[in-house]
Design goal:
Largest sheet: 2 strands, antiparallel
Shape: globular
Strand order of the largest sheet: 1-2
Structural class: mainly alpha
Number of strands: 2
Strand content: under 5%
Length: 276
């Protein structure tokens, strides 16, 4: 439970730093390590996805963006999704059902990332921002409440994507994070190489399945920990009655890191012993 309270506190800091502007730093300086809208009235940091689109449109080399995202990725990987991202926190608030992960839809977030870049290049516009549900929640609604936005087609489009995303979150826990988030797709490339991650003590693991039942991403942490779909939230660590899973900092690829799902039925893992 202490780990869960620590994560809630970290998520609160993500909201304060990303949306409520407590840093006081101009938004042309700090790239935020999660998904939020820099059009939010109180925002002082840059949305990485919005910046990426603008750089593609301008034809500028995104060296600063890639460098910062590389640092973020190597430190926590998708741990930012589980511990700091404000829209990830919204996903948690609606995560009432932890259904099994439909693997066939997993690549969608990478296709969304690719489509975002292609649309910015070909159409010279930030089309993802026009559809982003995080922007709907933190920019469109506040501006509408302040009387600065009209009840027009772009606003209704934002409300539609927000409603669809919230409905998806109710049906499938962390729906946006699982299938559609382009920022999650970027961080996923670093997930197995980051310093922060899950570790598995194979001699303690009984394959009881409690970690799987607790995982908001619907994966099997004892087999898939630190995979591209793992947000390193620690719910599996809390649920494990045998303390087989731990979460913390270590050298990437260190012995004891949780393995990925076995590639074919009947294959044997060299780290997770078969049940007896």
């Amino acid at each position: 439970m202490r780990l869960r309270y620590l994560r809630r506190g970290s998520q609160g800091l993500g909201i304060l730093f990303g949306i409520l502007g407590v840093t006081g730093i101009g938004m042309t300086h700090v790239i935020f390590p999660g998904l939020h809208c820099y059009a939010c009235p109180l925002s002082v940091t840059i949305c990485p996805v919005g910046l990426l689109q603008n750089l593609v449109i301008a034809g500028a080399a995104p060296l600063y963006l890639f460098g910062v995202l590389g640092v973020y990725g190597m430190v926590l990987g998708r741990g930012w999704c589980g511990w700091f991202c404000p829209f990830g926190t919204v996903n948690d608030l609606f995560a009432w059902r932890k259904v099994r992960f439909p693997r066939v839809f997993s690549p969608l977030k990478f296709l969304v990332l690719l489509g975002t870049v292609i649309a910015a290049w070909r159409l010279a516009d930030t089309w993802f921002c026009k559809l982003c549900p995080a922007a709907s929640l933190t920019a469109s609604l506040p501006y509408f409440g302040l009387g600065l936005a009209e009840l027009n087609t772009p606003f209704l489009l934002h409300m539609g994507t927000l409603a669809g995303s919230l409905l998806g979150m109710v049906v499938v826990a962390r729906f946006w994070c699982r299938y559609l988030c382009p920022m999650g797709a970027i961080l996923a490339f670093f997930n197995r190489a980051s310093f922060f991650g899950l570790r598995l003590s194979q001699e303690k693991c009984t394959r009881c399945g409690l970690c799987k039942a607790a995982c908001p991403m619907g994966i099997e942490p004892h087999r898939e920990g630190n995979s591209t779909n793992c947000i390193k939230c620690g719910e599996c660590v809390i649920a494990c009655p045998h303390a087989a899973l731990t979460l913390g900092f270590s050298s990437p690829g260190a012995r004891g890191y949780a393995t990925l799902r076995l590639p074919w039925p009947g294959a044997r893992s060299d780290r997770v012993p078969p049940s007896k």
